[in-house]
């Protein structure tokens, strides 16, 4: 029936070499499928009252059926019957199969003539969705010539009989047989039979079953863009979607070029910006740039002249198109080109006196400065002030959240940051900005974790995952496929891994893999978390041979993390000089980018390298520098870890009393918020300090002190066992055997000595001992 569509409902005209469609001046046209939708609406109004549940199901189905792509009659009837079998049966038998399909042309004409009367005294208003659809269909039908009406009647008969041919097919008129025997129709019927095999949801169909009207094209593009933003897993494959977009341009060459462009993403009332989005999702720099540049050409050609000012015409579209070009360059790291595009967008926005566009430009300007590593605090503050002045809560909230990120990196106290987030949350709930509520909760989760409050971070992540979205669910998409949910789930996976719950970690990563497949834009978040968890587990288990490919994969996703993990691996392999060179180079890079967390970790790792050569005194300045940075930036977790390193250094320098004081001061925070590894290391250090102090005690008190140290070692061994950290568990067995030897407990000594020997044989390549490792 493709040939019937093209001859009936698509009448191209050539003007100056450009093909124009919709010559009747309407945005929709009549098709056999639309007649079946009209029949459904007629039946819903004139039939007996339906049950409330069935009525609600049908009401939910009306808008997608009106604006979605044309379905075959079998698919349409199956969809209706799934909602209400009674209505589906009535539509099949009374209106389509018997009244029009097997009737005459006057039956179809009578059907259209009865539509206004049947709806005049009903619950449907002229301005409702159903009323507007009816008016569009009647207008399009009334503008058809007689020959076109006749062709529509023939197409309707083919549409009906193509589903279930009657037994007396040979009794059809000869002219019908001629129509059904043409090559185009036979090929189209074969395509429909292929589509009819298996259950299909109407919204999963391709739009290339025939030419799409402007309304159908807008609905299709809006659906695909919504899925790109909220659930990329349900979007068409990139190549297939590109084919559909080309198909839309073929039948709608004068499609409107985005009068409602969004400053962050194109709102898909145009297929060319949708091509841009489709290229962005596969990181295709060339195609996405080409699409935007082609969009500029189409704007200028359609307007006759490329004016850049004014609220009407193409000026607004051009401004936001240039802004999107700047964001494209930002995403791919082309900072110079992004800056030039932003300056151009600012210039034409100033000419048009478009304050909203200027605020979006200012938001991207401070984002660009932050991506380049420059100080963007003043620009961000100005953006928040101006957005508040022009009553733009979305931009103001984004600016405040950017200030929170910068404040956290600069060491702002936690209460000020959380107060700022709480104030933005009030605005979010007031104006129902559900997307920003999710972002705020995800950022709060990250802030608490950065400050070392794992319990609070856990709570915020759970609050986000259990929150009911304020945004209405469209196209069957739940609001759990956004970046905020991916960030929260990654935090949960890492928090579970820190507690040794690797079974739960596998479940979370598997869920992330299903929700965010590897080809989607947020997949690298969980991929990086998964690789880091695997690397830490391999290092804890002493399986250094597993780590090199993980380091390579981590470096592909995050260069800084990759270098840091490579240094850790080289340190574990006793390649001290190579590890030291990497740490020095990485520290210089992090000082330029002001990555305080990574600088502290690098200082701690460098201090551990000094331990390998017994340079405990030379490690002290590095540890004191790390402790100062941790306290300055309120990083409790890193401060606790630094104090553990300082205590170990003091123990090795012969000051166990001072080391024990330090450990007792930080033990509560470690046990409350630390990982299992940190808890075990802290208790192991305390036991060693207790044993060292006991050596100087009188004989009558020494045994009691050694037993206390033994109990502490038992508790540390429990944590290492839960984490399956075999190397440190071996150290615990070694110290326990030593304590029992001092106490004269020969059987217990032999037992722990045997456990130590078994682990020592299982880890033959490990050369680190409790003397040079915390």
Automatic annotation (TrEMBL):
<dbReference type="Pfam" id="PF12862">
    <property type="entry name" value="ANAPC5"/>
</dbReference>
<dbReference type="GO" id="GO:0045842">
    <property type="term" value="P:positive regulation of mitotic metaphase/anaphase transition"/>
</dbReference>
<keyword id="KW-0802">TPR repeat</keyword>
<keyword id="KW-0963">Cytoplasm</keyword>
<protein>
    <recommendedName>
        <fullName>Anaphase-promoting complex subunit 5</fullName>
    </recommendedName>
</protein>
<dbReference type="GO" id="GO:0070979">
    <property type="term" value="P:protein K11-linked ubiquitination"/>
</dbReference>
<keyword id="KW-0677">Repeat</keyword>
<keyword id="KW-0833">Ubl conjugation pathway</keyword>
<dbReference type="GO" id="GO:0031145">
    <property type="term" value="P:anaphase-promoting complex-dependent catabolic process"/>
</dbReference>
<keyword id="KW-0539">Nucleus</keyword>
<feature type="domain" description="Anaphase-promoting complex subunit 5">
    <location>
        <begin position="275"/>
        <end position="371"/>
    </location>
</feature>
<comment type="function">
    <text>Component of the anaphase promoting complex/cyclosome (APC/C), a cell cycle-regulated E3 ubiquitin ligase that controls progression through mitosis and the G1 phase of the cell cycle. The APC/C complex acts by mediating ubiquitination and subsequent degradation of target proteins: it mainly mediates the formation of 'Lys-11'-linked polyubiquitin chains and, to a lower extent, the formation of 'Lys-48'- and 'Lys-63'-linked polyubiquitin chains. The APC/C complex catalyzes assembly of branched 'Lys-11'-/'Lys-48'-linked branched ubiquitin chains on target proteins.</text>
</comment>
<feature type="domain" description="Anaphase-promoting complex subunit 5 N-terminal">
    <location>
        <begin position="30"/>
        <end position="160"/>
    </location>
</feature>
<keyword id="KW-0131">Cell cycle</keyword>
<keyword id="KW-0498">Mitosis</keyword>
<keyword id="KW-0132">Cell division</keyword>
<dbReference type="InterPro" id="IPR011990">
    <property type="entry name" value="TPR-like_helical_dom_sf"/>
</dbReference>
<dbReference type="InterPro" id="IPR037679">
    <property type="entry name" value="Apc5"/>
</dbReference>
<dbReference type="InterPro" id="IPR026000">
    <property type="entry name" value="Apc5_dom"/>
</dbReference>
<dbReference type="InterPro" id="IPR048968">
    <property type="entry name" value="Apc5_N"/>
</dbReference>
<keyword id="KW-0597">Phosphoprotein</keyword>
<dbReference type="Pfam" id="PF21371">
    <property type="entry name" value="Apc5_N"/>
</dbReference>
<dbReference type="GO" id="GO:0005819">
    <property type="term" value="C:spindle"/>
</dbReference>
<keyword id="KW-0206">Cytoskeleton</keyword>
<dbReference type="GO" id="GO:0051301">
    <property type="term" value="P:cell division"/>
</dbReference>
<dbReference type="GO" id="GO:0005680">
    <property type="term" value="C:anaphase-promoting complex"/>
</dbReference>
<comment type="pathway">
    <text>Protein modification; protein ubiquitination.</text>
</comment>
<comment type="similarity">
    <text>Belongs to the APC5 family.</text>
</comment>
């Amino acid at each position: 029936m493709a040939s019937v569509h093209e001859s009936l409902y698509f009448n191209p005209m050539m003007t100056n070499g450009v093909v124009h469609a919709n010559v009747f001046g309407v945005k929709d046209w009549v098709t056999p499928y639309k007649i079946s939708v009209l029949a459904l609406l007629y039946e819903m109004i004139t039939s007996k009252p339906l049950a409330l549940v069935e009525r609600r199901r049908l009401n939910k189905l009306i808008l997608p059926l009106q604006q979605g792509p044309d379905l075959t009659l079998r698919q349409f009837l199956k969809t209706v019957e799934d909602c209400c079998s009674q209505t589906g049966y009535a539509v099949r038998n009374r209106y389509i199969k018997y009244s029009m399909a097997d009737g005459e042309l006057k039956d179809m004409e009578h059907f259209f003539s009865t539509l206004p009367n049947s709806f005049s005294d009903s619950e449907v208003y002229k301005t409702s969705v159903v009323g507007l659809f009816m008016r569009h269909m009647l207008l399009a039908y009334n503008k058809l010539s007689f020959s076109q009406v006749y062709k529509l009647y023939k197409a309707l008969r083919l549409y009906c009989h193509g589903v279930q041919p009657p037994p007396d097919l040979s009794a059809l008129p000869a002219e019908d047989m001629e129509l059904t025997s043409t090559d185009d129709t036979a090929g189209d019927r074969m395509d429909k039979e292929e589509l009819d095999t298996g259950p299909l949801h109407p919204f999963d169909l391709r739009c290339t079953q025939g030419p799409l009207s402007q309304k159908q094209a807008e609905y299709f593009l809006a659906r695909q863009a919504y899925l790109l933003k909220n659930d990329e897993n349900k979007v068409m494959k990139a190549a297939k979607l590109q084919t559909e977009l080309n198909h839309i341009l073929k039948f709608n060459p004068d499609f409107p070029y985005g009068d409602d462009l969004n400053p962050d993403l194109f709102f898909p009332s145009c297929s060319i910006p949708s091509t841009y989005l489709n290229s962005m999702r596969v990181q295709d720099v060339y195609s996405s740039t080409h699409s935007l540049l082609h969009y500029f050409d189409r704007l200028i050609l359609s307007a006759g002249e490329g004016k850049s000012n004014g609220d009407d015409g193409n000026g607004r579209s051009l401004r936001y198109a240039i802004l999107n070009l700047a964001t494209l360059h930002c995403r791919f790291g082309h900072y110079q080109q992004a800056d030039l595009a932003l300056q151009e967008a600012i210039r034409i926005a100033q000419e048009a006196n478009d304050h909203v566009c200027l605020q979006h430009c200012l938001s991207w300007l401070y984002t660009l400065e932050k991506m380049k590593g420059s100080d963007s605090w003043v620009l961000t503050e100005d953006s928040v002030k101006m957005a508040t002045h022009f009553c733009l809560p979305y931009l103001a909230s984004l600016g405040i959240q950017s200030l929170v990120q910068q404040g956290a990196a600069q060491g702002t106290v936690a209460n000020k940051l959380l107060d700022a987030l709480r104030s933005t949350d009030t605005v979010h709930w007031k104006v129902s900005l559900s997307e920003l509520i999710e972002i705020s909760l995800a950022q709060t989760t990250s802030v608490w974790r950065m400050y070392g409050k794992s319990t609070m971070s856990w709570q915020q992540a759970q609050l986000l995952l259990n929150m009911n979205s304020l945004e209405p669910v469209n196209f069957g998409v739940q609001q759990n496929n956004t970046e905020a949910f991916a960030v929260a789930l990654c935090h949960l996976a890492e928090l579970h891994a820190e507690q040794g719950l690797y079974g739960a970690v596998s479940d979370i990563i598997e869920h992330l893999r299903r929700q965010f497949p590897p080809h989607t834009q947020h997949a690298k978040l969980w991929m990086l978390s998964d690789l880091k968890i695997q690397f830490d587990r391999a290092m804890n288990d002493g399986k250094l041979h597993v780590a090199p490919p993980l380091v390579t994969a981590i470096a592909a996703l995050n260069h800084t993390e990759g270098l840091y993990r490579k240094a850790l691996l080289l340190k574990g392999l006793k390649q001290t000089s190579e590890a030291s060179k990497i740490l020095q180079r990485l520290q210089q890079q992090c000082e330029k980018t002001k990555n305080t967390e990574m600088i502290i970790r690098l200082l701690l790792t460098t201090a551990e390298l000094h331990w390998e050569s017994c340079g405990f005194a030379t490690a002290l300045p590095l540890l004191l520098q790390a402790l100062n940075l941790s306290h300055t930036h309120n990083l409790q977790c890193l401060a606790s870890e630094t104090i553990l390193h300082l205590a170990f250094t003091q123990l090795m320098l012969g000051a166990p009393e001072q080391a024990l004081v330090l450990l007792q001061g930080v033990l509560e925070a470690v046990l409350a918020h630390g990982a299992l590894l940190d808890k075990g290391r802290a208790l192991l250090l305390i036991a060693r300090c207790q044993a060292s102090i006991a050596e100087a005690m009188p004989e009558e008190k020494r045994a009691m002190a050694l037993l206390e140290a033994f109990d502490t070692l038992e508790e540390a061994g429990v944590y290492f066992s839960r984490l399956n950290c075999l190397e440190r568990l071996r150290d615990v067995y070694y110290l326990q055997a030593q304590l029992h030897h001092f106490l004269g407990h020969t059987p217990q000594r032999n037992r722990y000595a045997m456990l130590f020997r078994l682990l020592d044989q299982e880890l033959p390549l490990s050369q680190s001992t409790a003397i040079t490792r915390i």
